[in-house]
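ok so I'm stuck.
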Amino acid sequence: MSSTTLSRTALVTGATSGIGYATALLLATGGTRVVVHGPTGEEAASAVERLVADGAPGDLLEAAAADFAHLDQVRSLAEELTDRHERLELLVSNAGIIAPERRTLTGEGNELCFQVNYLAPYLLTRLLERPLARGTDSRIVALGSSLHRTANIDWTDLTRAKRYSRISAYGQSKLAVTTFTTALAAWLPAGHTAISVHPGVAETPVRPLYGHSGRPAAEVAEVVATLCSPTTEVVNGGYYEGLAVTAPGIQVGERRSVDRLLKLSEKLTDRVVSAV
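replied:
not stuck anymore, here's the structure
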């Protein structure tokens, strides 16, 4: 049996640039089969070509597309991947955006940053439960942010219609990511893990929110790739800053906040989930 047949399969979202691209490159050159996700088919295919040019084995790469600003496309992506792959051993939930200068709503009526950074990954994770569960040691690695510590989820004004700022919208989305990932860990089959990580500040479009210079994306991606490795033991449900497990913001563990977020997430994605 070839090494390709034996390789683990990973989905890396937002793999056309930045940390996602560099993570995909590290995983593929290390022997992992990587589904390279981008917002469009053209961008995903272009990323695959660049990855091959950068040394990744072409037979370990495949392109997949979905614009996270459209939840129906997330559903279609999940359906395609479930059809193409019996098992997924790794989900790197990396896709994300900096909040726009002006408050922007998606076609579903959600604040754009909250949907792209949280609701779409939440939905994709739920819809990929079967292939992820079939692996013997599947791992979900969700990219969070240290900015979740000073953020809050505005339950009465989730779309930030009354008071909008880029940092509050971004922080809200990353607080939701860390809260969901921590809660998710408790539901996984034995041997499976889910963690969130702030791998460091990279020189990507999000960097200005942190107010200081960042490191090269390839360097930050090394942290993500290390946490993805099945040889790296992690604390299930843990929040990591770099390679160190760290206490997350208080809201992450508040039972009332967790329950409220999960019910809200189900409600906001119910039409798409029900259509599967």
